[in-house]
Amino acid sequence: MNTHIVPIERADNGALIVSSLTIAEGAGVQHKNVLELITKNLDDLEQFGGVAFETRPFDTAGGMQNRRVALLNEQQSTLVMTYQSNTDQVKAFKLALVKAFFEMAKRLPAQRIDLNAIDPRTLALAILEESDRADAAEAQVRELEPKAVAFEKFMVSDGSLTLGAVANMYKVGRQTLFDWLRATKVIQADRRPYQEYADWFEVKATTFERNSGASGVSHTSKLLPSGVDPLFRLLVRRGYITPDAAA
User: Fold this and answer.
1) CA distance 182 to 179
2) Considering only Cβ atoms within 10 Å of each terminal Cβ, which end of the chain, N or C, has fewer?
3) Which helix (H) or strand (E) element contains residue 81?
């Protein structure tokens, strides 16, 4: 990668961000190492705002795959770079990264609106349109709220949900749900949650004896009440289920 050209992205809210993929390529390290560094120092990074993650597809020799990518703002990405070993390539990329954010910020100055120059009727119409958008957003939030009664009938005595019960609730097969959760990097292949989603689940480890006589460990993850709503919203955003799936 030419470290003099750093692709700065814009988040949905207009904030300037850079991906962990860009950092890995620019610093000359493996992407998984950058993600591990971000996860290890998440508390430090979130002093500068929440760290966003998303799943992005990429081509491999075996076909299309998905990978988890972190999206960092200027302060977060700069801090991650300070935690990298200071090789010549890393130092050059740090400089390019700072310059890229600076140049992008110059090209995207904050917009100022002169209210005196706006026709009152135009301003009134804009206010009404914004109000309509706010009402629509509030209606969508209400629509996405899981139906309490629908969830309660699947819950076990401690208030949690087995993933099989979650699958039944969404009217899909158990394996289909596992495939969704793995594709969105919520659940790992051994059915334990990724660290980002650990507080959504209760995990129980069970030791068993293999046919060979060796011991093995299996894991069972149950969805906690605190994870019911976030998981529901995540699956709706990803397009796997509809807002009325749990009705």
Assistant:
1) 5
2) C
3) helix 74-82
Mean pLDDT value across residues 217-246: 80
Q: Taking 80 as the threshold, does the pLDDT of residue 110 lie above it?
A: no
* 16 and 102 co-located in one domain: yes
pTM listed for this prediction: 0.42
Greatest alpha-carbon pair distance for the chain in Å reads 82
Tokens 């508390």 found at: 43
Whole-number Å distance between alpha carbons of 134 and 116 = 25
For residues 203 and 192, the answer to whether their CB atoms sit within 8 Å is yes
The answer as to whether 48 is a domain residue is: yes
Contacts 24+ apart (CB under 8 A), 183-188: 183/55, 183/66, 184/55, 184/234, 184/235, 184/238, 185/53, 185/55, 185/66, 185/67, 185/68, 186/231, 186/234, 187/221
pLDDT of residue 3: 44
Q: Do 96 and 149 lie in a common domain?
A: no
* Domain count within the chain: 2
The residue behind tokens 């793995």 is 182
- Between β-strands 16-19 and 52-60, what pairing exists: parallel, antiparallel or unpaired? unpaired
Q: Are strands 201-209 and 161-162 parallel, antiparallel or unpaired?
A: unpaired
Q: 125 lies in a domain?
A: no
148: in domain: yes
